[in-house]
Design a protein that fits this description.
Elements (H helix, E strand, L loop, with lengths): L1 E8 L3 H9 L2 H13 L4 E5 L7 H13 L6 E4 L3 H10 L5 E5 L3 H13 L3 E5 L10 H18 L7 E4 L11 H12 L8 E5 L9 H18 L3 E4 L4 H12 L5 H14 L14 H13 L13
């Protein structure tokens, strides 16, 4: 799985402050940290930046390119800012993102084609995010993919994103997102590429629970066939789960339950209680977390203590 580092994000106060102070060294150091931790690309989320985005994005792109040599994902709704960043980028970028709304579909895919960029395409339209996996896949098949083909964007450069939403408040969406990835991966020959914003699943969740929810969901999404994940490369536990899956490492009890979760999801089944050693807190926590991600047990902040 291809990891896009998520840590340069406007939601962080330190990122906001560094943008305001034009502190490029802050961003360079954060970029290097993420790449050294294993990020394959970096997401640069500057927010809408309606007034100064066309200045901020190229400044950020140029500064980060001086420190690391990985693809950059330009993350803003400001298309002028995205184009300004694309103009100074050295390699192929990722545009994050378009939706299926007519205005976005009209403007964003041609920009990706013009600058040979990859494009994250969200399975949502004016009506918002559909609940079912089938509805999300239909948006991809009926709107996103045809528009990409219309502008002659290479299919390997279109990254369909079925939208990860938080288990806190949008719990019913969690299994549908996994299923949408699974359906998309058999929806064509070759199948479309897929992307997720992994950490969205634990938004509005207490800090001490976020990493566990993220990495458990990551295993499920990997089993469904996800190609790209915007995630935290500095999370050592997340990287360990990815390593276990990719290396099929069942040498520990933790590895065995992670692989069981992966294998169960791969064939459309759920992790069962007897798949884990419930006397081992780490394995029990994975089982309980899978239950909330299946929407079988209602999420509460105390779900691990139940």
């Amino acid at each position: 799985m291809y990891i896009v580092g998520e840590n340069i994000h406007i939601i962080s106060q330190s990122v906001k402050d560094a943008i305001a102070a034009k502190d490029i060294r802050f961003f360079q150091e954060l970029a290097v940290k993420q790449v050294e931790a294993g990020a394959d690309a970096l997401d640069l989320n500057i927010g809408p930046q309606k007034k100064a985005g066309h200045e901020i994005m190229p400044w950020l792109v140029q500064g980060i390119q001086e420190a690391v040599d990985v693809p950059l994902s330009l993350d803003t709704t400001n298309l002028a800012a995205i184009e300004a960043g694309l103009k100074v980028a050295k390699g192929q970028c990722i545009i994050n993102s378009t939706s299926a709304e007519e205005e976005r579909l009209e403007a964003v895919p041609p920009l990706a084609k013009k600058y040979n960029a990859k494009l994250i395409a969200l399975t949502m339209g004016k009506g918002g995010i559909p609940v079912s996996a089938e509805e999300r896949v239909n948006i991809a098949l009926e709107k996103l993919i045809p528009r990409a083909m219309e502008v002659d964007l290479a299919m390997e450069d279109l990254l369909i994103d079925p939208l990860v939403l938080t288990v806190s408040g949008c719990q019913e969406y969690c299994p549908h997102c996994v299923e949408a990835v699974r359906i998309l991966k058999v929806a064509g020959d070759p199948p479309p590429m897929t992307n997720v914003g992994l950490s969205n699943v634990s938004n509005a969740v207490p800090r001490e629970l976020r990493a566990l929810i993220n990495r458990t969901y990551c295993v499920m999404l990997m089993a469904a066939g996800v190609d790209y994940a915007i995630a935290d490369p500095l999370d050592a536990a997340l990287k360990e789960f990815i390593r276990i899956v990719e290396g099929r490492d069942d040498s520990t009890g933790l590895g065995q339950v992670v692989l069981k979760l992966y294998d169960r999801t791969l064939v459309g089944e759920k992790l069962a209680a007897d798949d884990a050693d419930m006397s081992d807190p780490a394995q029990a926590d994975i089982f309980k977390t899978a239950q909330i991600l299946y929407n079988d047990i209602i999420y509460t902040d105390s779900y691990l203590r139940v």
